[in-house]
Amino acid sequence: MTEQLEQTSKLALIELLYQLADDDFILAYRGSEWLGLAPHIEEDVAYSSINQDTMGHAVMYYRLLEELGEKDMDYLAHARPASERKNAIILEKVNGPGTYLQEPKYDWAFAVVRHFFYSHAKKIKINSLKTSSYKPLADTAVKVSMELYYHQMHWNIWFKQLVEAGGEARTRMEQAINIVIKDFGDVLSLGALSKEMSEAGLIEAEDVLIARFHSVMNQMFTSSGLTYTAAIGKESGEGRKGEHTPDLQDALKVLSEVYASDPAAIW
């Protein structure tokens, strides 16, 4: 492997790690906003556990970035501006009208559909990362996979039950599916260095992963009496390029409040 290729591979690895970390980081935060607002107490406990796991996954990726020479993991998580974030836009969008402390009128159907889609996309990426040429990432993928198995099972059950319930539940789920599909292409994207990622053996080619996602989702939809459309878009922009909505800026302001009070402290 030439020195130039090694440098290219490192840049691709760093890009991939930022995507993985930022996706999990912001979705875990959006999930945490449901604390005390979930449909019932058992779900409140289960969802909180899932969010804690997901934030832990983000931490592992940020730690790998720190080991590769990026800034310390606390800075990467809390101090980077929205323009430097690589998360997909659909993951940063608010849960619904209102705020956690003021008239939260969140959409549970949207939460279920977003997590359902994301857990399947994440599982496909994680399975590919288990054989990554970068061993620390491959080892991390194995750890993430053990918890992700239960996350995926959880959202599969919610998705199937609400869709098959019929009536208002199904109608709201179908509306949420339409919203998520319009922007989910951003989650499936590996960004501008996708070719370099696959050539370096970090993860399989983007088109291969997307094909697997469509196949799995088609099966899941069919089993619930739905018709799956592969017309997944990037209507709100491309988070992999640093394009984001005001929702992300607002979220980061809350997330960084404690860190910003004393960046030198050890939290």
What is this structure, in a nutshell?
By secondary structure, the chain is mainly α. Helix content is 67%, strand content 0%. The relative contact order is 0.15.
What descriptors fit this protein?
267 residues, mainly alpha
Summarize the helices and strands and which ones pair or pack.
Blueprint: H1 3-32, H2 41-67, H3 73-78, H4 89-92, H5 108-129, H6 135-164, H7 167-183, H8 185-188, H9 194-199, H10 206-223, H11 246-255, H12 257-261
Helix pairs in contact: 1-2, 2-6, 5-6, 5-7, 5-10, 6-7
Please provide a written account of the structure.
There is one protein chain. With 267 residues, the protein is mainly alpha-helical. Helix content is 67%, strand content 0%. The protein has 12 helices and no strands. Helix 2 packs antiparallel against helix 6, helix 5 crosses helix 7 and helix 6 packs antiparallel against helix 7. The longest helix is centred in the N-terminal third of the chain and has 30 residues. It is globular and about 55 Å long. The model has no long low-confidence stretch (mean pLDDT 94).
Mean pLDDT across the residues is 94
Low-pLDDT sequence parts: none
Q: Return the string of H and E elements.
A: HHHHHHHHHHHH
- Proportion of residues in extended strands: under 5%
Using DSSP, what is the number of strands? 0
Give the overall shape: globular
- Sheet having the most strands: none
SS class: mainly alpha
The share of residues in helices is: 55-70%
Total number of helices: 12
Radius of gyration: 18 Å
Instruction: State the end-to-end CA separation.
Output: 40 Å
